[in-house]
């Protein structure tokens, strides 16, 4: 591997950014492709698929074989609210391979007894985010029903380009949320990225069922990253 490529990969890992090391198996040359880089020719589609799947492998393009070595940051799920849904969601998310953490300033809810072995921040989200900012490989689920707790991290998630942003509440509740977020300076187009009501529509009723619906929606969002941009490019 070219030392320059190794340096780029290490820098991307520290910054939680996705890259692929593309090695030409014919001559051994390699280069690093970042997730939003434009890739021309026959490699464009295999590279896009590799970023979505996270799987490395050999592909053939334009008569040459390449090995795509994929380096994705571990996906992170941050739940705003130490509620019953969060208690069910935490173990499910870990089984699915997500790093999960809970943020809730209400110390009566955010306790190790209720969330054993889960990174727990019993503090206001804006305080936690100073040291642990969101990024494109973070999913954010706001489930407190309290604007004082939910609104700031929702705005932060949209500003950071989180791959998933969801919020608990009825359509009426969300309508008021939209007004508050617009007053905070967010454009309506950005706010439309929020999944609200949160979770896939599977008729979920109990906290555990809602947790299943949320996790399914998070996984779907993670695996479909970049598809909209690909479709636009093909249509152009």
TrEMBL record:
It comes from the Bacteria. Pfam families: XdhC_C. InterPro entries: MoCofactor_Util/Proc, XdhC_Rossmann_dom. Residues 77-218 form the XdhC Rossmann domain. This is XdhC/CoxF family protein. The lineage of its organism: Bacteria, Pseudomonadati, Pseudomonadota, Alphaproteobacteria, Hyphomicrobiales.
């Amino acid at each position: 591997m070219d030392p320059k490529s190794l340096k780029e990969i290490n820098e991307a890992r520290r910054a939680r950014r996705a890259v692929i090391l593309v090695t030409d198996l014919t001559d051994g040359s390699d280069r690093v492709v970042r997730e939003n880089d434009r890739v021309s020719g026959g490699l464009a589609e295999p590279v896009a698929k590799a970023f979505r799947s996270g799987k490395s492998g050999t592909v053939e393009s334009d008569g040459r074989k390449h090995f795509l070595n994929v380096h994705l940051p571990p996906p992170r799920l941050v739940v705003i609210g130490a509620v019953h849904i969060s208690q069910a969601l935490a173990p499910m998310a870990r089984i699915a391979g997500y790093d999960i953490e809970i943020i809730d300033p209400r110390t009566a809810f955010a306790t190790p007894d209720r969330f054993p072995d889960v990174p727990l921040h019993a503090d206001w989200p804006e305080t936690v985010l100073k040291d642990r900012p969101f990024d494109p490989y973070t999913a954010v689920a706001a489930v407190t029903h309290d604007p004082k707790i939910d609104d700031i991290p929702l705005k932060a998630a949209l500003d950071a380009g989180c791959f998933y942003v969801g919020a608990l509440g009825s359509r009426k509740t969300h309508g008021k949320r939209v007004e508050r977020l617009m007053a905070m300076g967010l454009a309506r187009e950005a706010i439309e990225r929020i999944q609200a009501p949160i979770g896939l529509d599977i008729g979920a009723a109990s906290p555990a069922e809602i947790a299943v619906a949320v996790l399914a929606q998070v996984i779907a969002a993670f695996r479909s990253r970049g598809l909209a941009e690909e479709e636009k490019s093909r249509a152009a």
